[in-house]
Amino acid sequence: MSFADAHAFAFSLAATLMVSIVIFRAGDGTMGVMPACEYDGEDDTIVDELDPFAP
Fold first, then answer.
1. H/E element holding 9?
2. In angstroms, rounded to a whole number, what is the distance separating the alpha carbons of residues 55 and 49?
3. 46/17 Cα distance (integer angstroms)
4. pLDDT tens readout for residues 14-45
5. CB-count exposure of residue 14 (10 Å: 0-12, 13-18, 19+)
6. Distance CA 55, CA 43 (A)
7. pLDDT of residue 47
8. In the prediction, which pLDDT does 46 show?
9. pLDDT of residue 51
10. Strand pairing of 46-50 and 31-35?
11. pLDDT at 52 over 90
12. Which of 19, 38, 39, 55 has the fewest CB atoms within 10 Å, counting from its CB?
């Protein structure tokens, strides 16, 4: 998934679930999206984090 697609998906998830969402780069170079509370990977693979409660 491209960064643009991952960002759109993450924004949709954050707004729907009202949880922080992490966009990360997987080992093969693709982008992934998941709730921040479930992410247990390396911190340096995180590309962006969306918080629906941030101003």
1. helix 3-17
2. 14
3. 20
4. 999 999 999 999 989 999 999 999 999 899 99
5. buried
6. 23
7. 96
8. 96
9. 95
10. unpaired
11. yes
12. 55
Predicted pLDDT of residue 1:
87
- CA dist 43 → 12, 13, 15 (Å): 23, 21, 23
Are the CB atoms for 52 and 19 separated by under 8 Å? Answer: yes
The residue assigned the tokens 């962006």 is: 48
Residue tagged 């918080």 (tokens) = 51
Q: Which of 23, 11, 24 is nearest to 52 (CA)?
A: 11
Residue showing tokens 């693979």:
45
What would the two tokens of residue 53 be? 């409660």
Angle subtended at Cα 7 by Cα 12 and Cα 15, rounded to the nearest 5 degrees = 20
